[in-house]
Structure formats: structure tokens, C-alpha cells
UniProtKB/TrEMBL annotation:
This is Phosphoenolpyruvate--protein phosphotransferase. Keywords: Transferase. Its EC number is 2.7.3.9. The gene is ptsP. The lineage of its organism: Bacteria, Pseudomonadati, Pseudomonadota, Betaproteobacteria, Burkholderiales. It is an enzyme of class 2 (transferase).
Amino acid sequence: MSFQVFGIAVSRGVAIGRAVLVASSRVDVAHYFVAPDQIEAEIARLLRGRDAVVLELETLKEELPDDAPHELAALLDVHLMLLHDDALTGSASQWIVDRHYNAEWALSAQLEVLARQFDEMEDDYLRERKADLEQVVERVLGALTHEEGGGAAPVTARDFGGEDPLLLVAADISPADMIQFKRSVFRGFITDIGGKTSHTAIVARSMDIPAVVGTREASRLIRQDDWVIIDGDAGTVIVNPSPIVLEEYRFRQRQSELERARLARLRHTPAVTLDGEHVELHANIEMPADAEAAVSAGATGVGLFRSEFLFMNRDGELPSEEEQFIAYKAAVQAMKGMPVTIRTVDIGADKPLDRLSVSELRHEHVLNPAMGLRAIRWSLAEPSMFRQQLRAIYRASAFGKVRLLIPMVAHLSEVRQIIETIRKVQQQLTDAGHAYTRVELGVMIEIPAAAVMLPLLLRHVDFVSIGTNDLIQYTLAIDRADEAVAHLYDPWHPAVLQLISQSIAQARAAGKGVSVCGEMAGDPDFTELLLAMGLRSFSMHPSQIPAVKQRVLRSDAHRLAAALPRVLDSEEPFAAAEKELAAARGGALH
């Protein structure tokens, strides 16, 4: 039966494929693919996990006291029966064979299939056996997690040999899983929760694949292997579409591919407005390997290297100074003399470290992590770790132009403490004989307090970078990952636009560099507005550069600036921008 699910469009385009459900569980489950030559070993690992639980339950049954209620033994018998049922481990093994899932993922996928079958049973007693099934699966997952030696090595990409394209469906996708999936086979994402700037949305855009979030019910309504269409433009998910609808969307896919090819021809065209204003289009990257894509897309530098991704998926072990240095050096060398802006670790909120980290253990139950010990607050609370990261960044500066960016600054005392720490690090490097060059210091403007006190901050730094995602979140008091309030997340809100415009104007007046590295920078709908505000440095995912460059090439910056006051003074800035900035559009495509 065909039906539609509606959510929030966060990454444009159309994706068509079969649904792959990542089932929610009270046990954290690793999701990765295994190589073809590891399939038999992974199935054996699954069966060892099952057998360990069988042995545990049989032992418990044997040790039951004589006066124990009969129901306890009967319950254990039910669990043992489920464990031996081929519908569980046999079918889970088939997921490993067919999809190359790791054992935990395969077991979770089969749990999802069986749980739905239990939900549809008319008999109350049988329907309630779903809880027994969940308990059994969680025991096996626990046994797999604690198995000495772990499982097969993850494979983040593989050749499906002509199989149907796959779309990922989940209640939510953790940042750790998103890293694992980033270079995998998925052509699109669908999640129950999230907003336009949730981590899942940002990574989906960075992968340049369609995504719809905040659907609320998708992971419950969509079944494993359903045919699904993701309309990333309208925020619509179509499940089991009719042949006519399927063909229509396949036509749209082909049109989108032609448009991408046309924009790709702008790769080596300088970003210059019709009236001669040069614009820097930098790239946001998460790993050193991403620098290659930045160069290929025509980026003029890296405006944001999110260093926190070097700290994640490590079972609580922090990267060493040498490991970080090698990563930063690789990115710097890949950019071939173009500037690389490295942001110090921005851990917290929707990007927590593994639970074994010191700060995560200490602040595990914080009610509002977005306003807690995160970003520079976390770095200053862990001075040894912070100095280690700074040493690695400064050592990388010997191999190219490096700039240092500090996230979530709100106090001058923080800036002074950072500068003092940098002096100590420089002395340590000098004493150790490590080469380094001057590194420009910048701070992110993502807290309203920083935007309001920007003239004071500018006395101590070389540049600022406006992080619009958090600036909007904190200005409007909205959790950007919470779909319940996602509709209130508004980049066009007058207060947000005033803060961004004032920040750009104040930085330019002080002769300091200013860029925007949030999602607004990579959204062509905001290109003309930011140009009107005087912005000449944008930073975005490499895949977004061609579309933004096209807008730059078609804009007259001076005419846009003349129209800006009418937009900022309007009660409805979006409507005003559509009207007032339209006059400054035009011109032939370079």
C-alpha cells in the first residue's frame, strides 16, 4: 500500500531506494558493514553471542530454588525457545549475508521485523510476547558487545554489485553513526526527529544527498525493504509509490543530475560579482581527506575544519598530539597554500564524546547540554588536552597557512585565558625545537552576548566567524535538534538578521576578517542577503559551493547593499528580501 510521510526538508534532491531501518534500542548498537570475506566469521560471532545467552539462561534455570514460582521457569523456557527460533538468529544471519550488516545491526534489524509481526497479532498473550523478544535480543546484544576481541573490522563503503540503492530510516542517527555512514552506500536519510540544523541534517547536506527529518512516525510506519522516495525539496517521503509516481521522480532525478553537471563547470571560475567584488568561497571539512573534495569543488580555502570528529568513535580515548598533528598537516598540505581554519574541539550538545571521556562521565546527566560544558568551556576545563591540541595545530602551521578558531566564546576572560595558553604552548614548542609560524586567532560568534560585545572582542582577535546555526538557536531559545519546536527555528527572524548584519559591519569597520560558516552560508537563498550585508567570505560544504557561486556571479553587491535597510526594517524580512533584492539580481552566467 502506498502512503506518504511528511517532515522537514533539510537536504535537497530526490532519492529512490529500499528502506534500511536502524531500529531503536535501549542498548547502543554499532552499525557498520563487513567485508565479503568476513561474513562467515560475523555469522559465527552472532551464534556465539546467542549460545552465550542460552548457556546463561540454562544455568539460571538449573539454579532456580525448589520453591521458586513455576512462572519463572516457564519464562526462561520462552526466552530459550526464542533464542533457538530460526526466525531470530537464522534470519539475522541472512541480513549479514544479503546486506553485509555487522552482527549487532543484523539482530536489531530482525528484531524490528519480528516486533511488527507481534504488534499485528490479535491474541493479547502472543502480542505481549514482544517484550520477551526485546529482552532476549538485548541480552544477545550485550553478549556481542562484551565479546573479547570484538567483531569484524568496519567497512564504510562497498560495492553492492547492482543491488537496489538504499535509504536509511531511523528514529534518530547519532553523530557517531553518521560518521560511520558518511562514505557508505546510503543515497538518503529519513529520521523521526531533528530540525534543519540538527547534526543529521548538516551531515546529509555535507554528503550532498537528500534527507527529510522530523517525520515523527517514519521509522514506525516504513518497513524493511519498502520502496521509498525521498523528496528533499518538499520534505515528503513516499512509501511504495505507484509506477507513475516512481517514473515522475526518476525524471526529476535525471534533471537534478544535469543541473549538477552544469554547475560543476563553474569550478575554476573566480567568484566575482557583476560589479567586481571578489568573494571567498571556503569549505567546511570534518576530516583531512575532505580537503581533496574542497580543492576539487573550487574552494579558496578551508573556513572551518571541525576538529571534534578526530575525537569521536574512539571508545573514550583522546587522539594524541602526534595523531592530531598528522591530521592537521595532511589537510594543510592538501590545500596547497590556501588558508586552513582549524576550530578547536567543539564537543557537547549533539556531539558528545564517548562515555569514557572524563568530562562526559562528570556531566552525564546535564539537563541542557547545549548550554553546558561544551566547546571552549570544555577545552578550558581540560587544560592538558587543550594545550595538546594547540601544539598540534601550531606545528601544522609550519606547512602552510593556518588560522585558529575558538568556538562558543562569550567572555573576555575566556579570550585572555586562551591567549595566555597560546603563549605557553608557543614556549613549549620553542623549547622542544618544533617549527611553527604565526597563526591568526579568531572566535566564533554564535552566542548573542558575543555579537553584542563584538567591538570589545575585536580588540583581541584577528578575525571572527559567525556560526549561524547556534546563533539562531541561542537567540530564539530553540533547541535546533528538537522537532517539537523546529518550526520556530527561523533564520529570517529580524533579531537574527540584525545580529548578523551588525557583526559583519563591526568587523569590517575594525579592519578584521569576518566570515559565515553556518548553514546560511551554503544556502543559495541567503547568498544575496549576506552579500548585501557586506559579507565577502563564505564557508560551506564543498558540494554547496557551485550553487552559491552561481548566485554570486549573478549579483550586483552595491545594488544589494542599497536595498538592505528596507529588508532589515521590515516586519517580514523574507517577503521584503524577495521583493527588494530581486532588483539586484540578473546578469549572464559567467
